Amino acid sequence: MNKSEWLDKYKKTLEKFPERKKEFLTGSAEPVNALYTPEDIGDHSNAKYDEKIGFPGEYPYTRGVQRTMYRGKFWTMRQYAGFGDAEESNQRYRYLLNSGQTGLSVAFDLPTQIGYDSDHTMCRGEVGKVGVAIDSLKDMEILFKDIPVDKVSTSMTINAPAAVLLAMYIVNAEKQGINRKDLTGTIQNDILKEYIARGTYIYPPTPSMRLITDIFEFCSKEVPKWNTISISGYHIREAGSSAAQEVGFTLADGVAYVDAALKAGLSVDDFAPRLSFFFNAHNDLLEEVAKFRAARRIWAHIMKTRFNAKDPKSLMLRFHTQTGGCTLTAQQPDNNIVRVAVQTLAAVMGGTQSLHTNSRDEAMALPTEQSVTIALRTQQIIAEESGVTNTIDPLAGSYYVEALTDKIESMALAYIQKIDDMGGVTKAIESGYIQKEIQDSSYKYQISIETKDRIVVGVNKYTMEEKTKGELLRVNPAVEKKQIEKLKNVKASRSSKDVEMRLAEIKKVAQGTGNLMPPIIEAVRDYATIGEVCGVLREVFGEYKERIVI
Amino acid sequence: MSAKIRVLIAKPGLDGHDRGAKVVARALRDAGYEVIYTGLRRTPQEIARMALEEDVDAVGLSLLSGAHNELFPAVIEELKKAGLKDVVVFGGGVIPEEDIPGLKKSGLGAVFTPGTPLKTVVDFIANNVKPR
After folding, report:
1. Nearest-CA distance from A108 to chain B in Å?
2. What percentage of chain B has pLDDT greater than the value 70?
3. Which member of A125, A130, A330 has the closest CB to residue B70?
């Protein structure tokens, strides 16, 4: 029998037994056929296999960037955490490390992320809320007290002021007697997606890109094991994009960073091996696996053909994954544990290098310790019990998954091409194109829930009356006052003359073309605050004005 | 009739999550209202000033950072100072249920939490905001 003969029979069956719905769609609203066969994946001769799929650790890395993947070691289990002040967050980190977590991931509060000290008038109510409040090196010293930063890798979700937080991390390590060359970790440092989707920008694009390439250059010499950027699709997806848009827009951002670094005079193989990525994992398991595979293949191809990278490490798309925050429901919150388990499977079968699993209560508040433990245990169960880690890229060769990988690849490439034609990502952001594309997807998604074309269990089907949502974490409202008090003490105990001199030096370098990292390091060593350093840069660089698109 | 009602959708504080604010803005626009969106990082004073300048009938506040207990009442305070006592204020975001009574007491007409159908928000405006 061939496929068309089978389809004839299938259609006859449908006349008698119609399907559950007229149209079957992926999580990103792409149509799905009833059946996929070899005809859907084109030429799979050996030559094509090598070109499109290949082997783990080999170009084009569709099957994974490492040769042994999880047979060698599991992904890094890295829960994003931080709230209140440095003391409280330090306790949570030590709890997580004692529970078998293998890396740290620091959440900063919004004032820190936007480069304000805790006493700034804009920060009312926000201190310590979505992450830990850091004003100066003093807070950083407390945050990492009794944590061996030469052994634990640390990811910091920090973008516009990334240089300042990295400087504090380096100085804190050096004060512990640890060489900066031995530090491992990541700063997010991805400003483009802040303009697109996340909102914690400070400066306009041109000086922001300069700060980023300064960090690339500095780290390639001084902190060689540090991941200097985590090019993030996560927030683009959270803002409502489809899977293909997540890949297309994120890799277009990646192209912009490589272009900027080349323009700054760096050579591609000096910085490209330290580029890393960050993606979302949603509920449509197979679409998500295909997405990760497609992203790896596209990036390898771009780096090889467009940028002429020679070091295999420059071609490898290494990525962190977080499960989908916007898939969590406030209704029947324990159901979220199941969603997160499915999303964990997607990330793992998609070959992630590290993973954060969301907690069941995060549609309502920051997670409690108990909820975080379940989320971490979910990763450990998938790792140790599910069996999917026993072989590499277990879904390869599935006609559906390969067809979907090809499809997401071609859709993402079309976005990248379109952005190239517009003159690059910055232009596409300034014109509002990317934001509009995401908003259209997000609105359609919401409408599909309202019309029940898309079912969300507990929200528009299988709903029930709920009595209580259980215990939620509350950030102590006294944190703001306490933090402002601490800031005052730091300012009183440092040499204000030294700080002024250091800030003047930053200003001078910012007005010229030198690398900003060394003067920032010297300033934070003398306890200059984040608000002071970013304030000087605000004076020189100005501030970004959002293009409002609705 | 409803076309005359003007709604300001606002993002107080430092939170950058604007998916919900924008979806609500669009749904209200599709329902026939005039909608103005402030963009990110607005102070309570700026929101009140925009509400006054744009002559709105309702203000929708969106916040997912947990600062709602401080910032929502602060906006209401500023609206009062600006002489906008009759403007209907509603809010939404990641807001624990136990915070809702306090927010309503401070003057919010409604608080919409995750999973709320758009129709609920549109109906709230239709039932509570009368064109002047």
Report:
1. 12
2. 98
3. A125
